[in-house]
Amino acid sequence: MLAESLALTAALFTIGVIGVLTHRNAIIIFMCVELMLTSVNLTFVAFSRFYGAAGQVFVVFVMTVSAAEAAVGLAIIIAIFRHRQTINLKDINLLRG
Amino acid sequence: MMILLLQAVTTPATLASHPLSGTAAEWLWLLPLLPLLGFVINGLLSLNGARFGPGDPNTPGHHPHSGAAADAPAISHAEQAGAAGDDHHAVKRHKWAGVVSIVGPGVLILSFGLAIAMFFAMTGAGVDSPFVQSYFTWMATGDLGIDAAFQLDQLSIVMVLVITGVGSLIHIFSIGYMRDDPGYPRFFAYLNLFVFFMLVLVLGANYPVLFVGWEGVGLCSYLLIGFWFSDKANADAGKKAFIVNRIGDFGLLVAMFLLFANLGVLDFVGVNARAIELPAGGALITAICLFMFLGCAGKSAQIPLYVWLPDAMAGPTPVSALIHAATMVTAGVYLIARSAVLFSLSPVASLTVAVIGAVTALFAATIGLKQWDIKKVLAYSTISQLGYMFIGVGVGAYVSGVFHLVTHSFFKALLFLGAGSVIHAMHAAYHRTHSHEDAQDMRNMGGLRRFLPVTWVLMWLATLAIAGIPPFAGFFSKDEILASAFERAHGSTLASATWLGIPGSTVLYIIYGIGIVSAFLTAVYMTRMMLYTFHGPTRTGAEEEKHLHEAPWVMTAPLVVLGVLSVIGGWLDLPEVITDLVPLGPGELLGHWLEPVVGAATARVSAGEVHASVTVEEMLILVAVVIAVAGIVFAWARLKPARLVRKRDAVAEEGFERVVAEKYFVDEAYDRAIVTPTYAISRNVLWRVIDNGIIDSFFVNGSAKLAQGFGWVGSKLQTGNTGTYAWALVIGVVAMLGAFTLR
User: Could you say which architecture CATH assigns to the domain A2-90?
Assistant: First the structure.
């Protein structure tokens, strides 16, 4: 039962990573990051089923933090869009050396 | 420093049983300290005046006659202004000149008094070992233990008496000569500092302390040669003296290193005791002595390092008298006499010293024949006489070398101060008439005996002394040197040695011959100088003649004292062959006096000597006298002062005369062979290749380029593209996870 749960979360996490790496649109990348966080939450839940309730507590923490992060992240994306009329990350490279 | 010394003196590490304990010799430390005190006072006064007083020596063009004469003394306007009532520039006398005139010579006279007290303490107590005062440990590392220590013995007291005695007279002379110079306190500060270092040199109880004095007098020589430094020629002369002396100092340092490496000690008592452990005549002792002699050749202006001394005449004339005639340049002779034990163990090195001395004596004497600058004549004369001293110490007659050192300091100081008096008068005359003639050129002089009678008489005394006319001082000392060279040829460790494949006795006979020829030339060039300066018609100029006058008493009084010493100085060491003939007094005073210091070394050199018979000795004296008289007569008969023309009308010499007048082009040869190649190598190799090419381009700019390159690569990694960073992160995580799982 644990093996199947972990396989699912690993698959979800990998999908998230690939999404982050391949997409240029900030919103999509943002959603992919959320997907990765969710897959990690699932892992916690799966483990808590076998090792006690601590995993459930962590899930609550992660969801709280990711909600805050989503608020900040979306605010930044909106700010960037207002400033440059684009959220394509290819065009946003001010830190280039 | 004073407190340090005072503290140390309360518990001096001297032998309680030494006969000099509790006598005036206990005040040994005060001897150099007095001139140092004078230096501090005069130095502070000079700084004060430079800021607030009139006549800042740093003001450009304060020395208006630099073009006409290298050595132009300040003029005593004060004594003339009233009479002439003219409107010449105001006297730029320093505001502290009065104090300096008391402090400067005063400290030296006190030192001289102390030295006399010590001398009598020594005559009272039978002293057969040096009186050593150790103040503190200077260097203590590993096996090297060097104390800051002074040593009083028969040799050092002779030197101290000469330095403080002749030094005092020259200081007094300087009051008159330099009084109106804007840098008057600075001058006395340097002069006092010089005496301090000179006393450290002769009182030092080991080679390193001696070396401190050795370098110190070199520094003061540099400062005083370039005293009128706003004139580039003077500053260059100072630099030349300093640099040439560094070559010699390298030799002295190497000699000290060798001594320490092989004997493990550097104090004179220890070296003298342990020197016999070295194989006599071996390569090691010869190397030590030759390196040491290189130092002496630099300091005492011997071939090949003599070139700085004639240029050193750029300094004020009292400096030439004190440093470049009487004291500093004789330091090399002192060093060899001090190291007599070492030199007596190496016949080859001793012969080298004597040969270099003889060649220098002859070489410099010939140049002296054709010089027109009165101070240049005396400079080459000094080099020549120093050559005689080196013949003396080279042939193992250390007493005669020191004897000539003493008498030479009397008559050469007199000659230089007399020349100073002449230049003073000439310069004053030219200054009054706003003429820009050369005040030191003898072609502009002539007939000065009518204007400077005191100087004239006294300089003739000195001339007779240096030429070797009995009974003047120089006769006895020079004769003793030549007689020693002749006697050593008859069986001695030198005569049985070979020098560059030539038997030692042959070398010694040649040295004697060169000495005789040089004595003849000495008489000729000195008579020439006197004739052209004081005799014949006056070529100074009709208008200028009215302003020629004898120097003030403060300048002539020291001349008189030196004149007396030049006459009676020979009584210090009368040869017994003369005291047997004429009852002049006790013979060989100096010889007996120095016996505890150099007696053993002299005996070692003269071992197996066949003492010349009285007839031979008398013949040698006769030859010396005849040669000296012949030289004077020859010069008097051949040279016609009446035919001389003034410097500006003189035609250039031709042929060999020109070669001699141009000093054999030695300076030019050194310039081509050493200076120019050094410059070329410095510029083309050291500067362009090594400095610019390797150090600057490769190391300095190269390391900067390297850092820049790394920075460029690093900056290219920063694309600013989020995707790239994400990829890098993922690849890194995968790599690390892979590394952990596959481990």
Answer: Orthogonal Bundle (1.10)
